[in-house]
Amino acid sequence: MTRVSESIDVDVPVEKVFWAVTDPDTMPRFLSLVKSMEVTGPDTTKWVVELAGKTASFEAKATEVDPPNHARYESMTQRVPFVLDLRCRAVSPTTTSLVLEAEFDAGGMAEKLGLAKGVASVALKNQLGNAKKYLERRFASDGVA
After folding, report:
1. Is 94 part of any domain?
2. Per the record, a Pfam family (predicted)?
């Protein structure tokens, strides 16, 4: 399994960041690794993600939800091991530290050689940059950020 963690500060209040990063309709707009996220039950969702050049579809369960601080999603599909941890911490009333941790099976030679983590880390850092831009634009138009 490959595990990566990256963080970024976003000039948006913690409650709004948490709402956006856990909303199934919003998440795919700024995390391009999440192609879709569809609610299938009270705490379950169907995900389509693209990681390390591979597309995977799986059912996930929200195993921990502590608004506005933490949400954890874990794959319920054995053939597609995947965990996404989202952590939000208020740095100030208008700034949030957003941490994304992903754990997945990259498979193949890249994972065996230890290369998958570096590639995934760069990709996750880019995803967080996209999230920052999206969130700050989205909530600046509300006059909030």
Report:
1. yes
2. Polyketide_cyc2
Give the model's pLDDT for residue 145: 42
- We report the CATH number of the domain holding residue 72 as 3.30.530.20
Nearest to 4 by CA among 130, 109, 127: 127
8 A C-beta contact, residue 81 and residue 75? yes
Kindly report, residue by residue over 19-30, the tens digit of the pLDDT. Answer: 999 999 988 888
| Domains contained in the chain, number | 1
To 10 degrees, what angle do helices 14-22 and 116-140 make?
120
Radius of gyration, alpha carbons of the chain? 15
Instruction: Supply the range of the domain harboring residue 23.
Output: 2-140
Distance of alpha carbon 41 from alpha carbon 24, whole angstroms: 12
| CA distance linking residue 54 with residue 29, whole number of Å | 19
Q: How confident is the model at residue 111 (pLDDT cuts 50, 70, 90)?
A: very low
